Amino acid sequence: MKEMIEAEALYTTQVSLWLTRILCNGIIHELAGKGVFRKLAAALGGDRGRLPRLLVVVTPPVDILNPEEDQLRTHKPATELVRRVYDNAKKAKHFECMAWVDARLHAQRKQRLQCILQQLVHPSSGEAAQVDDEKELKKKIQEHLKGKKFLIVLADHDDLTPWEDITLTDALPTDYSEDSAIIVTPSMQHPVQLHVWYAASWFFLGRATHYKVHFYSHLDALNKKANELLVGSHPRKDEVHAIVKQILKKCRWDAFSTKMVLQALYANPHRSKAELETLLDSIREFNTVPNARNIIRLCYDDLPSQYKACLLYLSIFPLGSKIRRTSLVRRWAAENIITKRYDLSAMDEGDRAFSALLDRGLLLPCRIDPADKVKSCTVHHHVLSFIAEMAREDNIGNTLLPLALSRRLSIRNGIQVLELSKKQQGTRSNACWRFHGSSRSRRSEDSQGPLDDMVTFLNVLHESPRLGLIKVLDLEDCTGLKNRNLKNICNKIFQLKYLSARKTSITELPKEISKLQDLETLDIRETKIKSFPAKATLPPKLVHLLAGDIYRPSNNDTGSTESYSTIHMPPGIGSMTNMEILSHVAVSESADELQHVGQLQRLRKLGLVIHGNSDRLLSILLRVIWKLECLYSLSVHIEAGGKDADMNTKGITISPPKSLERLSISGNISELPRWIEELPQLSKITLCRTSLTESDIQFLGKLVNLRYIRLRHESYTPKKLTFKEKEFKRLEFLIIEGTIISDITFEQYAASQLEKMVWTPTSMVKLCGLEHLLRLQMVKINGNCNMDDINMEAHPNHPILEIIEANATATASNAPALQ
């Protein structure tokens, strides 16, 4: 909070100084034009005498809408408006010279000058890339703009004085057309910035000034978006829209409330006139917290009862926690908060609940994968405050537990754990174990203290009676955890359904693991556990077994020498008929347990690490997976050395599982298995160390439903990758990282549906044919790129181009796409 206040104060001071300078210069230039104070004007304003017109287009800090539907479009309404102006002016040839600068990608003055020069000259000339000196850049820009009518746009800047980089430097000539202009669209991060720009607009009312601030936000962008969200068949659309317009007007100074109103309309565009009128009556201008709570209540009341319980469960997490999607959904299922519904499993229904909370803005995305699926989330402090109060009223949650324990334990065990915690008074000071109750702090937890508290709790667990009501125990990242702690857990917390020891120092599982008769999820990823205890049986109700640890040398950027270690296939796996996820486990040379995997008819996700005689093991594996009718994800890591493994079906006539959607292969193989063309649902492929050839890529290009390809290190051997005509017809996402590929070409009509491309090369690269990708929305290159053949300005869809060079600077320009 202190840092935010300081940042806002600095911003206000900087802009105020700038406004004062502009006002003084404007007065002096006006007097100078009348022959008064000419010498003073020359001294203060140099020999320029005037500046091009500057139009600032401002919109409030509101981001919408569904984080899983369209993460590619990150530009503000003001930028989109200016983009339309820019495009129309370009088509009509209103300006002799035009340049668009994405300030987020070009944060430094030199980068922006290079970007402008690149667009003033022919894109293939490479002139801007060859100029590294700022003075030379300014000189060349002046030469190109001299005597001409130009338009320069600086979009989405969030730095303090970008106008100094363009309008008040020597970069512009003194001889240019009176109708030349510069347009700036500031990126608003805090409401105070909007207030400052509102004040700035009053500085520019005089006719003599060339500066103008235009607010494109409240009744323009927001009402336009709200109108788009309301269903066209709504019986009272005009009346409802009028109410929404009034709601947005009252919330116009509050970014959170404004966003939540739009999210509410997005999630349910059929909202009645009565409920919107009730919301309107409850909202007051400049009443931020009450307004936020009323709008959150609107979104909350709209949820099904199970989804409400899922949201209230989040009250146990401290403010600022980053919550992994899959872990959260598994915890919901373990607590029976979310259950099987019709043909959907509890996990699938939980995933729907997660998406519903995202749609309403009740969850905020933290990490998003390349395919735009939200992988982790956090909770806004307004939402957390609301659900914490609701949980207390309904007596839900660990409100009496220390903050260190509440997020790691299930929500239905407060009394038992409270009794146990009294024994900790002898090992920790009273201050450490003071329970804050309903008024406890919701700040982000300290990384060291809470972990010590959790270990202390486990250390006295052996002295306690059995805690049968605890269903969830999440020990991820709990430092100081010992093997004996896990043994105590198995002996005392016998009704556990969810147990995570991920990223802990645990090295072995106790034989008492078999006592956890109700355990459904066991997560031991990123640990050193290698095997199940001898003569121990698996918990009979186990549904998710998650294991595996990837080792990467610290000095290895490409990951080409990474190795995968994991637990060996547990004995008696064939009897685990409830198993849905088995990932990743190592297969022994005998393959005895591997053959029993075919009995797991509910198995949906399988991950295997293969050592030794890979051909024999792969042959058995293929026979096994052919029996798994529900399998949708298969991951195979081949660690064996020697000759390339053969994954083809020699002598096997059984059909592969028709439900398989995702396939990941890591290791040396002779060629891509040809049986994958028999998989009608296959949409996602990840390859690593497979050493593919051009013929393998052509084979992939014929797969009719392939939407996502990820080529990791050593997955493809040639340096040039060509996507040929009419291949990859459904491909939408292309991820290439750590390969020797240095030249990618898209022929006409190839990958016609491609929307997003991320490329992390190991050397200077060349990228051609992007103009053929008419659906393209974003290209991100993490490395050095030859810009001669990339002309995004001419692309009809105006995709976002982001280039992060090896020295962390960007050198390419792009114009943003419109929604």
TrEMBL record:
The keyword Secreted does not apply. Coiled coil: none annotated. This is NB-ARC domain-containing protein. The keyword Repeat applies. Residues 316-385 form the Disease resistance protein winged helix domain. GO terms for molecular function: ADP binding. InterPro entries: Disease_R_plants (IPR044974), LRR_dom_sf (IPR032675), LRR_R13L4/SHOC2-like (IPR055414), NB-ARC (IPR002182), P-loop_NTPase (IPR027417), WH-like_DNA-bd_sf (IPR036388), WHD_DRP (IPR058922). The lineage of its organism: Eukaryota, Viridiplantae, Streptophyta, Embryophyta, Tracheophyta. One of its GO terms (biological process) is defense response to bacterium.
